[in-house]
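Q: What structure does this chain adopt?
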Amino acid sequence: PGANPHTYEPTPRQLKRVVQADLYAIVGSGMEFELAWLGRIRRLNPRLFIVDCSKGVQRLADDPHLWLSLRNAQRMVENLLKGLSRVDPEHSERYRERAEAYLEELRRLDAELSRLFSKAKGRAFMTFHPAWGYFARDYGLRQLVIEQGGKSPSPKAMVRLAKEAKEEGIRVIFASPQFDRRAAEAMAQSIGAEVILLDPLARDYLENMRRAAHAIARALRVSP
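A:
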């Protein structure tokens, strides 16, 4: 919790558990942690079955945060179900039943959020780290990003972003708890906005997606 997934390194205890595992599920979207460690993980456990949860997901260029889409999550659940059923066929029916129940929860929440944002098409919200692009795509929103190429913006870029934020009526800037918030706070101060944290990695996925959606809706002044 609180770690940056772009630079994270597993602990010795986690690596020991990987050696004992039958299945390893990767996001598969180009996250730096996976690119750096997957080869070593394979060498530690050559019999490990790798499930690529991104299979069949329509990607956004240069955005590895594909789990922040309830629609992508449905495909990820389906991919994980196939992997679990392959390595443990004896319990495949139980996996299928549980997957179907979870998929129904994902579909219901997606329908709820589609209604929530139905009158906000084309509206913009601002984030420091570009984590919510898939979410924006799903509901016809636009994500304005402060971070430039993984770094805080230059003074010139800050001026441009501040102008754009004022034109869009931005009053909230969303930041992630895993990243330094100083650039977000500086931008917020310059345009009279507040900084609110959205965690892209909170443990309770469904509740977190609902909480994030309602925070974004409030920032867009969209009524439930």
